[in-house]
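Input chain follows. Return structure tokens only.
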Amino acid sequence: MNLATLRFTALAAALVLGPASGAEYTDVNATASTLSFNYNQMGSRLYGTFTKFVGTLAFDTQHPEAAQASLTIDLDSIDPGSEDAKSELRKPAWFNTADYPTATFQSTRVEPQGDNRYLITGNLTLRGMTREVTVPVVLTSQSGIGIFDGALVIKRSDFKVGAGEWADSVVSDDIDVRFRMVVPQH
């Protein structure tokens, strides 16, 4: 096939198929998704998860700047690896789940960074306090499924989590939060 025929074939395909379309992601599959955290306590690195959360997403790869994302986390679903720690984290000095049963994130802007990388900025509310956070996120697509991976560091002191006797260095102030949101393509 010569160069002129190749160009004609490519042009004809573009006219028939139309412009390349983006992928749209809207329904977060909480069962396939994960939300975890790790931190230092008395020199040891510890790991935990939240097992109940609801995520919503309106994300079009052609217009990522118009995307909206939200996440509501059931704080009672925390699994820090032991029943004693789980019981402690529900108390008023920590998450105070009796008064603040959920934590929420609501996006305010999405900035494309190229190569399927995005910065998602939004408001994180925990214990009735709201702070703006920016989360770097990478989107990979596998067989019609979008996987949004992100991580951020939250200072527990910003939300008065572990206040009082826990405010010292027994538990690190920096809490590493990681998530993997699995979303079918539409």
